[in-house]
Amino acid sequence: MWRGNAWPATLLITGMVVYGLFVSLSMTTWEDYSRLFRDPVFLESIGISLYVAVSSTVLSVLIGAWLAGFFAKQTGWTAQVLAVPLFLPHLGAAYLAILYLSDLPVIGPHEVNQFSIILTYLYKEIPFVFFYLLPVYRRLDHRYEELGLMLGLSRLKRFWHGKGVFLLFPVLEAAFIVFAFTLFAYEVPALLGVTYPKLIGVYTFDLYTQGDLSRQPEAFAISVLLTGILFLLLVIFTRTIRPLTERISKGRVE
User: Is residue 62's pLDDT more than 80?
Assistant: First the structure.
């Protein structure tokens, strides 16, 4: 296990985020935020972005967790095949989706269900969830489930007390990472997304780069809002959910 000093990287990333946030705040006024919330295109973009992020996160976590549970008892190189998509950047995965999915009748350049974007994220994020949870599965003590069987617990209760309480926080961690990435991403929606409604990353980039300079402050306002939402989710996750899951795993909460 790597035990190096993470502070330089932490300070560098924090400095970049704080500087970007400072620049964005200095470029905006209250009127920019007010105009943003009156913009139906922005609201529709947020809605479709949440749909893609939630769908990709839920499916990736369910399938990745199931695969991790299945391969936890296996030996050999079979599970390593799932590592292949991790070496391919998201941009490359998007090009593969264009190459192989664009001719399918329900998946194409004019789709409104965003299937190609969700499938591309599944191709990338299922292996991430799988390798995130596989070590946790392999460290589980299966005697807890055997004890539950001896005590006559139901199958659901045996799973919860034998695996669920130990998997809860790692699963939520993986889900948080996937959700944050897919909600704010740009590359995949830019290549595979439809012209309307655009996902929020693409919509923000268009506002900043289009010829109408009067709308650039709205792009900065969106970056401030997205950073604020992510920071709020991070605070809720670390200050509320993490202590709660630790109490559950220690048997203090059912």
Answer: yes
Burial 148-180 (b: 16+ CB within 10 A, else e): beeeebeeeebebbbbebbbbbbbbbbbbebbb
pLDDT digits (tens, 9 = 90+) for 155-178: 888 888 888 888 888 899 899 999
Q: Are 162 and 142 in contact (CB under 8 A)?
A: yes
Give exposure, 20-54, as e/b (b: 16+ Cβ within 10 Å): ebeebeeebeeebeeebeeeeebeebbebbeebbe
Alpha carbons 64 and 82: distance in angstroms, whole number: 10
φ/ψ of 100, rounded to 5, equals -105, -20
Tell me the residue length of the chain: 254
Q: Return the CA Rg of the chain.
A: 21
Please state the pTM of the whole predicted model.
Answer: 0.81
Q: How confident is the model at residue 213 (pLDDT cuts 50, 70, 90)?
A: confident
Contact 133, 170 (CB under 8 A): yes
